[in-house]
Design brief:
Structural class: alpha/beta
Largest sheet: 7 strands, mixed
Strand content: 25-35%
Bound molecules: flavin-adenine dinucleotide, adenosine monophosphate
Low-confidence stretches: none
Shape: globular
Radius of gyration: 23 Å
Length: 443
């Protein structure tokens, strides 16, 4: 008889690995199944976030910003560096090293916390059984008390622009360029499109972002999105709204792109094209027909506020379930589920999950936007402060942007905070804590 686990987690991204470690720390006999392997067939833990998402994109954002700073932003301080150049293979190798260090770190954490790491593809058979299939196609069945599904998400591809991995790439391919494309097209001016567009813009690409929607960053507070559009235009990002891509084709080593906008059919030629039109939950082959777990109308695994699926003892967390596709959101859910399995009373305040776009300046927000408050008929008040009036920001030559606070008109309780400006990601954390403690904007 093979070992029976208390918990089997499927997927080792920021949702899954955190859940597995927390469960093991609480004394539960835990295994984590991961199918991701590198080019040598070696298992890679950490999921999208560590391998091809948050971490590698932030590494390239930091490298490219340092180059941009050296070429464009040091002279004003009286610093002359001569002609700076950037070695792209070296920048990419640094990123790879960080990824390797972190994914290896998860393996170390699993060992230290006594999480059993299983290599292969996991499938939920029934409430107490997971099928594990290895790279050679051999299957076995693992018995477990509880199952946590954390299989994450994958890039959406659109028929008009099929990814070939060379000239037309998705976000993963855009982290691997070996030189700087002269003209770079990006389909989708969402979070990932803006971050990757910024990386290559700073390295010298002429970047054109084609966005189907008429509004820029519609999920952000309107005032902040307007400010962002102004700043990005100044940086040279050519953001075309209301531009729906209808066809993309590789011809003579270039990518020809057709898109329609208010003026009819348009054409553009790029050296490379990044398709960043969003991500979809990875449910393919994860559930047996009689697993008892259901999928909602948008393709996500259906869960309640405690991440319980409709099948007892089966939970789902992270990008595979509703809510923002953010690493820390999945990790929070992982902790909550592990603690609830261990009999603790954990829950999540979904109203205080911050999000950040790591452009320069950064854009960070938490809570409701002004347009959401209007829609909900909430009586609110606003306060804004431009960074140009901050002595600290001026001293740092970082005076673009503003902070906007939204508070309940009567009680003054903070309802939302939206920041575009220097260190926005760091600043928003204070507001998250304030909101967690029910602080007023006066506080
Ligand atoms: P994933 O990280 O996708 O992990 C799922 C894991 O499950 C994968 O390792 C996969 O191989 C494995 N798996 C899937 N199916 C099976 C199976 N059947 N059996 C075994 N294993 C399986 N978020 C932020 O919060 N901040 C950021 O700055 C940020 N930047 C991003 C930048 C980019 C370019 C991208 C693409 C994403 C970014 N994200 C960011 C989003 C973030 O990466 C995701 O929200 C996060 O990775 C989701 O975590 P997860 O654990 O739910 O899923
Ligand atoms: P996000 O959801 O933040 O990852 O952003 C993806 C963006 O891609 C969204 O704003 C979509 O409107 C946009 N998008 C999707 N399909 C197309 C298309 N065919 N042409 C241009 N933009 C698109």
């Amino acid at each position: 008889m093979s070992e029976k686990y208390d918990v089997v987690v499927i997927g080792s991204g920021p949702a899954g690995y955190v859940a597995a470690i927390r469960a093991a720390q609480l004394g539960l006999n835990t295994a984590c199944v991961e199918k991701w392997v590198d080019s040598d067939g070696k298992q890679r833990l950490g999921g999208t976030c560590l391998n091809v998402g948050c971490i590698p994109s932030k590494a390239l954002l930091d490298s490219s910003y340092k180059f941009h700073e050296a070429t464009e932003r040091l002279a004003v301080h009286g610093i002359k560096v001569g002609k700076a150049s950037i070695d792209i293979p070296e920048m990419i190798a640094r990123k790879e090293k960080i990824v390797g260090q972190l994914t290896g770190g998860i393996a170390g954490l699993f060992k230290a916390n006594k999480v059993t790491s299983l290599q292969g593809t996991g499938k939920v058979l029934a409430r107490h059984q997971v099928e594990l299939t290895d790279a050679e196609g051999n299957s076995s069945v693992i018995e477990t008390e509880n199952i946590i599904i954390a299989t994450g998400s994958v890039p959406i591809d659109i028929p008009p622009a099929p990814v070939d991995g060379e000239l037309i790439v998705d976000s993963t391919g855009a982290l691997e360029f070996t030189d700087v494309p002269k003209r770079l097209g990006v389909i989708g001016a969402g979070v990932i499109g803006l971050e990757l567009g910024s990386v290559w813009n700073r390295c010298g690409s002429e970047v054109v972002l084609l966005e189907a929607l008429d509004d820029f960053l519609p999920m952000m507070d309107v005032q902040i999105a307007k400010e962002a559009a102004k700043i990005f235009k100044k940086q040279g990002l050519d953001i075309r709204l209301g531009a729906r891509v209808t066809h993309a084709e590789v011809k003579k080593g270039k990518v020809e792109v057709s898109y329609s906008n208010g003026d009819g059919e348009q054409k553009e030629v790029f050296d490379k094209l990044i398709v960043c039109v969003g991500r979809k939950p990875q449910t393919e082959n994860v559930l047996a027909a009689d697993s008892g777990v259901s999928i909602d109308e948008r393709g996500f695994i259906y869960v309640n506020d405690h991440c319980e699926t409709e099948a007892p003892h089966i939970y789902a967390i992270g990008d595979i379930v509703r809510g923002p596709m953010l690493a820390h959101k999945g990790s929070e859910e992982g902790v909550m589920v592990a603690e609830r399995i261990a009999g603790k009373k954990a829950q999540i305040n979904y109203d205080t999950i911050p999000n950040v776009i790591y452009t320069h300046p950064e854009i960070a927000s938490v809570g409701q936007t002004e347009q959401e408050l209007k829609e909900d008929g909430v009586a609110y008040k606003t306060g804004t402060f431009p960074f140009v009036a901050s002595g600290r920001a001026l001293a740092a030559n970082e005076s673009d942007g503003m902070v906007k606070m939204l508070a309940d008109e009567e009680t003054d309780r903070i309802l939302g905070c939206h920041i575009i400006g220097p260190s926005a990601a760091d600043l928003v954390q204070q507001i998250v804590i304030a909101m967690e403690f029910g602080a007023s904007s006066e506080d």
